[in-house]
Amino acid sequence: MEPFKISISEQQLHDLSIRLKQVRWPSSFSIEPWALGTDYSFLKRLVDYWGTEYNWREQEAWLNRFPQFMEHVDGFDIHFVHVRGEGTSERPLLLTHRWPGSFVEMLELIPYLTTPSLYGGHAEEAFDVIIPSLPGFAFSSTPSVSEEELAYFDIVAEWLDREGAYSALHRTKPETLVFALSDSPAGLAGWIVEKFQGWSDCDGDMERSFSLDHILTNISIYWFTNSIASSIRIYTEGTQMPLHFAAMENPKLFAEHLNHFFHSLSI
Fold first, then answer.
1. How buried is residue 144: exposed, middle or buried, by Cβ count under 10 Å (0-12/13-18/19+)?
2. Could you say which of 12, 164, 223, 251 has the lowest number of CB atoms within 10 Å?
3. Interior/surface letters 222-237, b for 16+ CB within 10 angstroms, e for the rest
4. Where exactly are the structural domains of the chain?
């Protein structure tokens, strides 16, 4: 296990800046926002903000305040955040994300779980929190798949057929999609942000649940690691259910629910 620090090169930042300035926007539809997919006005405002006001170096410094490591497991590198809790309880808690999230969505939850005494709780309620980047996401390696796993995936294919157009495309023609998403930051943002809008409890208003900075930090992780292709392989290799981004939307409430759950187990 080795310490890990995020360090995106200036060349990558320059490349992104150029691409964001050269976006060719399609004509917009004058219909209800989000009715047919990503809202044109919101995405344009998000991409404009990404290219002018969003500061990756500030976000990178914030990410690096959390202790991160790289572990070599069965021939693959697994990136993870590991923050030890206060006190002496040493209760490990593993938190995992799904697509289109990343380890970023869990970070604001950490203080409530590792230092509960600062938020009205007790030190003995603290957890040692581990947040991995799943294989194929962010800084973790992309795994191979065994024949046994492929056979299992055939069993759940029928369930996937019911999950709509995006999952069908991810599952059946992902390599067609990723050419566009890997080449265009605006396209990547449009593809990801529509899921945050549709799967969160924002009642149609994205910024009620997420700041533009938080949205873009998650998207930037996908962009700088060029992991959109490997991340959506989860659809060809397993099941995927839409989940709300509870830890990212309301970390304090999510932590309270977790603590209540574990407290009930000890009664």
1. exposed
2. 164
3. bbbbebbbbbbbbbbb
4. 2-266
103-157 pLDDT, tens digit each: 999 999 999 999 999 999 899 889 999 999 999 999 999 877 677 777 766 665 6
Which pLDDT tens digit goes with each residue over 220-248? 999 999 998 888 877 776 544 445 577 88
What confidence tens digit (pLDDT) does each residue in 148-184 have? 777 766 665 654 554 456 777 877 777 778 878 988 9
Q: Are the beta carbons of 66 and 110 closer than 8 angstroms?
A: yes
Q: What is the pLDDT at residue 162?
A: 46
Handedness of CA 246, 251, 253, 259 (dihedral sign): positive
2-266 adopts what CATH topology?
Answer: Rossmann fold (3.40.50)
Token pair 């709780």: residue: 121
Q: Which amino acid is at 265?
A: L
